[in-house]
């Protein structure tokens, strides 16, 4: 009996000793890993600390990663360096970031400088819309316009943008009088065809000669008829100013060329069909 109790207590003692041994080993491992981790961290961040004259260790704010994150998202210098996106022409509504404006009325007359509240009051009173004309001046220039005026101006700008040559596209220019001789017109047309072959844009300007009754728009159509296999209008003929008309020719795209060939084939088939019908009709009458 005494031997059994003695063995039991001996077993408990050995178990307790093994448990204590494992706990001590785990504690030593944790301390070792903690020293490795924090030792590396302290080594990396040691250069971010300096000693003050009072002997107190304080963080160097110039090198601190934490304080570096608290810098403003965008400084004034960076905001000026960022290019401004060009806004589309149209009503700005009531979103006016400037306090003082230079306002022009719907007739194009200057109303002088005024506070934006006064400009908005005029807009509401007359049922007009405010449009930003020039932003890079002091003060910025706004104009009061009707919806119809805005629409017409948008169409003009779209036409101007369409007519302007794209980057990398060469635009040639040619001008002559409406009283041009037939041989000279043929020479000019050949020159246009050569430029079109090279996929250049060709701006043609025709001046109305004194005493000439030639329709300048018909001259443009005549030129296009000669080069119609590859050319079309980029900008249709229009009166630029009194006595002067202009247009721009361009090379047709691959899709346009295919459509043009289809139309020509269809047109030729129609002509042949009409000729055959005329022949049959003549044979019957004979």
Automatic annotation (TrEMBL):
Q: Where is the Translation initiation factor 3 N-terminal domain?
A: 93-159
One Gene Ontology cellular component annotation? mitochondrion
Q: Where is the signal peptide?
A: 1-26
User: Which Pfam family is one of those matched by this entry?
Assistant: IF3_N
UniProt keyword annotations, A-Z: Initiation factor, Protein biosynthesis, Signal
Superkingdom classification of source:
Eukaryota
Sorted alphabetically, the Gene Ontology BP terms of this entry are: mitochondrial translational initiation; ribosome disassembly
* Homology family: Belongs to the IF-3 family.
Designated name of the protein = Mitochondrial translational initiation factor 3
């Amino acid at each position: 009996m005494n031997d059994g109790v003695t063995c039991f207590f001996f077993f408990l003692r050995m178990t307790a000793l093994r448990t204590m041994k494992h706990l001590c080993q785990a504690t030593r491992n944790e301390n070792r890993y903690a020293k490795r981790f924090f030792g590396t961290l302290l080594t990396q961040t040691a250069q971010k600390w300096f000693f003050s004259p009072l002997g107190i260790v304080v963080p160097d704010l110039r090198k601190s990663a934490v304080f570096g994150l608290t810098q403003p998202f965008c400084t004034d210098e960076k905001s000026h360096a960022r290019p401004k996106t060009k806004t589309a022409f149209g009503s700005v509504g009531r979103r006016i970031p400037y306090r003082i404006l230079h306002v022009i009325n719907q007739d194009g007359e200057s109303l002088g400088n005024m506070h934006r509240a006064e400009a908005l009051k005029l807009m509401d009173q007359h049922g007009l819309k405010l449009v930003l004309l020039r932003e890079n001046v002091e003060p910025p220039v706004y104009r009061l316009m009707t919806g119809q005026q805005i629409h017409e101006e948008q169409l003009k700008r779209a036409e101007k943008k369409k007519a302007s040559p794209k980057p990398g596209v060469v635009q040639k220019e040619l001008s002559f009088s409406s009283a041009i001789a037939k041989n000279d017109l043929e020479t000019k047309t050949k020159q246009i065809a050569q430029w079109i072959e090279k996929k250049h844009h060709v701006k043609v300007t025709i001046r109305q000669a004194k005493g000439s009754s030639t329709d300048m728009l018909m001259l443009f159509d005549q030129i296009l008829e000669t080069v119609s296999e590859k050319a079309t209008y980029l900008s249709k003929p229009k009166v630029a100013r009194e006595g002067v008309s202009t247009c721009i020719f361009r090379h047709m795209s691959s899709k346009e060329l295919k459509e043009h060939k289809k139309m020509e084939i269809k047109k030729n088939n129609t002509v042949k069909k009409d000729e055959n019908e005329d022949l049959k009709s003549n044979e019957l009458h004979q």
